[in-house]
Every structure is written in structure tokens, then in C-alpha cells.
Amino acid sequence: MKHKTVIEPFRIKSVEPISLSTEEERVEYLKRAHYNPFLLRSDEVIIDFMTDSGTSAMSAKQWAGMMEGDEAYAGSRSWERMESEVRDLTGLKHILPTHQGRAAERIIYGHLGGPGKVFISNTHFDTTRANIEFSGATAIDIPIAEGKDTALEHPFKGNMDVAALDHLLKEHKGNVGAVILTVTNNSGGGQPVSMANAEGIAAICERHGVLFLLDCCRIAENSWFIKHREEGMEDLTYREIAQRMFAICDGAVMSAKKDALVNMGGFLALKDTELAEACINLLIITEGFATYGGLSGRDMEAIAIGLREIFDPNYLDYRIKSTLFLGQKLHDLGVPLMLPIGGHAVYIDAKKLYPHIPPHHYPGQALVGELYKLGGIRTVEIGSVMFGTYAEDGTLKPAPMELVRLAIPRRVYTQSHIEYVVETFEELMKQREHVRGVRITKEPRFLRHFTAHFEPLA
Ligand SMILES: *Cc1c(COP(=O)(O)O)cnc(C)c1O
Question: I want to staple 220 with a disulfide (CB 3.0 to 4.6 A). Which of 18, 205, 310, 357 is the partner?
Fold first, then answer.
């Protein structure tokens, strides 16, 4: 018999209690957190969909590996394991361990960036953009046009616009820091990137003599989509697909907190020796010696094991199909979504859900507040709070989309948790016309969504 039910391909060996709360309590918690879920205590959250980053449940094998961690300052065995695993996967010669993705970003983009430099991506993730802009350089996003239409179905909505890339590389000749392909495209909706797109970009970069980097946080999830959606790829394993993509790039940045199934870690992998040497100098100054970066030996063990486990076909099938399960249920309720459903998250189109709330009243932030109040569900706004800027006269230049992300931690929640979330949305849909926007009462200059204070509009 072939079953329709996609079960979690693991048993639970260790449990962590969730503290439950009432709606009245949550109204108070939210007020105290200035309506910013980043300022809530985790004990005040029932289902935490804020991020899939660093929130994975590790396997028994990974925990066992941690006991084997070699904490030597130099030449640790655990480093050798991590290095050989990353090298085997990426085929890249120089591997630099870092404490998380953004540390690798600061090193490489700090080195390649600076005033006058330009970086081009399908969509820069928020920390990527922040590190590039902090160096004084400019970050340009060129997703394909289909990627900007949230309702349109397209198999590879995360793709980069290759014609626009060719044009930009001519326009900015001599000043391009790097071309960065983010797989899957996180900020653009968790959407996959095709092999054909990656190959097209690699060819253009080579022709222009420009560095081509992969932001490969979710390369395994991306490989699932390629195998199931792209012609000619169906006979390759997920790992072979990932390796084929790594083979055409000059380097990769990874936050191991995603597809390496660990709570902390990252790396920078580079082909070019001269570039790697410059980056290793920066690594030693700010992260740690070249054989540990910002990591403990035990973290490096867990990364080495996680990078193998992630390509397990049963795991990847469950991962993508369980995300789809949530998306499909919300779609059936009439919740406007980013379609098709991506790999690690379901994105709600808050502009369509709350058409009566204008962008400068932040419909996404309003939705984030409602989900928390009704169900204790913590989510994140990916819209004008995260990416909006101000014009000279102080008016908001809104982001192109007002999304709210329900990011699903790996191997953490079961189907009944997901059904609880769906039930919360049933109520949320009934109340949609009565929800009002918010205004910002306090904000920092960079990455304002992390610490900004809000106030509901009367
Ligand atoms: C998470 C993430 C990063 C940054 O990694 P951290 O480990 O959070 O510093 C960079 N790019 C993408 C696409 C990400 O998802």
C-alpha cells in the first residue's frame, strides 16, 4: 500500500515543554514587547515560527557527535571532519569556519565591498544587504518579474533575471563586488532557483570576469525542487544536484543554522587562494583561528553530521511536503499566500489580507500581532518594516511586498501543532476587517525590524 499521509520520519526521544497562555495574557505580553515579537520572551510563545534558523532539532547522532568534539585550539579533529564534509559537498578548496552566516558575510563582503562597489543578487537576504551597505557598497536585487507577483504560479520563482544581470554588469563594469545567488530565495518568498538559472548566471559572470557566490543556506531544500520540477534532473540524487550547483560557483556563504541542522554555525568556502588568504586574515582577527572560526569543536562535529543528514530523501520529502500541507490548508481557507509554497516557510500576503491597511500603517506588522494574540504564534514581517526606507521628505518608500513569514523549524513541530495554527487562521479570517495598522515609535538605523517599537493605531 502507498500512503497519502506524510509522517514525520523520526521518533521523539527527548521533549521540551511548551508553556501555554491565554489570549488575555498575550495581549499584555505583546504590549510590554512594544508590539514587536522579537522583544517577547520565548516562554510567552506557543508555536514559534519566527525563524527556521538555529531552531532545528538535532538528531541522536548529532548529539552523540557532540561528545566527540575535539576542543583543541589548533588542528582539531572536529575541524578536520567539518572541513572534509564541506569540501566534499562543495568541491571548493578553502573552507573558513564562522560562528554563523553573517560572520562569513561580514568577512567576504567587508573585503570585497566599500564605497562605489555594487553587489547583485536574486534577492539579498537582510543580513547580506546590511553587511554590503555597512561597507559603503550598494546591493541591487534583480528577481525575475514572476517572483514579484505573489499569486502567480511558477516552478522557479526564486530565479534571477539574467538579462538584467548582463545589463548591470556592463553598466557597473569594474565596480562589481560579486554576484550572489541565494538558494532558496529567502526574502523573495522561500522560492527555489533552477539549475538552468544558476548555469546562466555562472556563464555571464565568467564572461564578465565577475565573482559568482552562492548563499547556500537552503541548498538541500532547493535541490528537492530541482529534482521534482526541472527536466533532466530527476535521476540525480539531492546531493548530486547540490554538488552540480556548487561546481559552477567561485565560492559559497552558508549559515549552518538552516540546512546543516544545527543551532549555531556557518562557513565561507572559496575557490581562489589569494581571496581566501585575505579572508583568513580577517577571520583570525574577528572570529578565531582558521581551524575553528567562531565555533566549538562540538559544533563543528554536529555540522559535519547535519550536512549529511539533510540530504536524506525521506527527510527532504517530509520537509517540503509538510510545509506544503500548512500552505494548502491556509490556501483552502482563502488566506492570500505567496504561491507556489516555498521550502522552509509559508508567506502570507498581508497587503491582500488587509487591503484597508495602507503600507505606511504596516499591514504585515498588524498581522504578526494578530497571530500572536489569537494563537501565541510568533512570525516575522518581511515587508515595509524590514525593507522600507524613507524619502527625503520623511515619507515611507514601501517595500515591493508586504509579506509575513511562517518559518518552520526543522524536525520540531508535529502535524497537530500545524493543525492548531490552521485553526487560529480560521478565527483570524473572521476578524480581518476589524484589524488596524501600527505606527513606529522608535527605530534604529540598521535592521530596524529587530528592535523597533510599535503602537497600534486608534
Ligand atoms: C539566515 C541567512 C543568512 C544569515 O545567516 P545567520 O546565520 O543568521 O547569520 C544569510 N542568508 C540567508 C539566505 C539566510 O537565510
Answer: 310
Q: What residue's CA is closest to ligand 1, atom 12?
A: 125
Residue 426 sits in a domain of what CATH number? 3.90.1150.10
pLDDT for the residue numbered 189: 63
Task: Say how many Å lie between the CA of residue 82 and the centre of ligand 1.
Answer: 19
Residue 181 Cα to ligand 1 midpoint, Å, equals 13
The predicted model scores a pTM of 0.93
Locate the ligand 1 atom nearest the alpha carbon of residue 103 and give its number. 9
Residues 135 and 97 in one domain: yes
In angstroms, rounded to a whole number, what is the distance separating the alpha carbons of residues 419 and 402? 25
CA of 426 to the centre of ligand 1 (A): 32
- pLDDT digit string, tens, across residues 94-127: 999 999 999 999 999 999 999 999 999 999 998 9
Question: For position 447, what pLDDT does the model report?
Answer: 76
Is 15 contained in some domain?
A: no
Distance CA 52, CA 225 (A): 18
Give the total number of structural domains in the chain: 2
152 and 226 co-located in one domain = yes
Q: Given 287, 309, 331, which residue is the final one in a domain? A: 309
246 sits in which H/E element: helix 238-247
